[in-house]
Amino acid sequence: MKLRQNVKHFAAKQALTLPVVGQKVNDRLVDFHADYFAEKSADGRADERRPHLADFFDATMDTYVAALDAGYPEAEAREITHVQANFDFYNHGWTEMMEFPSDELQEHYDRYAGFFERHGITIADPLGAFRPGDGIREAPSTPERLDDPEHPHAEGGFADDVYVETDDGETIVGGQDEPADVSVSDAPGVDDESARSD
């Protein structure tokens, strides 16, 4: 998959494991992702999907931290959560929201099969052990879209590794090294300015 990576991602990585500020960053990232992907929905579907997406992305924040704890670099830990989301989109027939074509689902699963299997994550059950005990809010599916899937926002051909686009527009394989001078204050949600600039 192709992702962007900049100092905010590394700042968020640091912040998510801290008390108080970690919850602020978690909430900001959940809101951002729920809104971002809801807006990629077919016409008239965004509002009905947003609560489900918020619950889903909140659960994937735990996945992200677990992947970091397991030794995955930032880009791969974040990619794991995006793969989970794309499994969920596919299962709901929300193919217009997918970041990679549905014929690459298995390839993305296979790359992280060790992590996914340890946590009970499958294509059919994208959250596995990270599913909250009280569940997540549901939203209507559009299974008819699976018959002839359209992927207007998907980029194919990036299933063999994690690809990162830097702020300079360069695409590199595997992600960047973490900068030495990262400040938690650069993480989205830490202050009003960072919350507006994501």
From TrEMBL:
Renumbered residue ranges of the record's region Disordered: 127-198
Family annotation (Pfam families): DUF6149
Sequence ranges of Basic and acidic residues compositional bias: 144-154
Record's protein name: Uncharacterized protein
Lineage: Archaea, Methanobacteriati, Methanobacteriota, Stenosarchaea group, Halobacteria
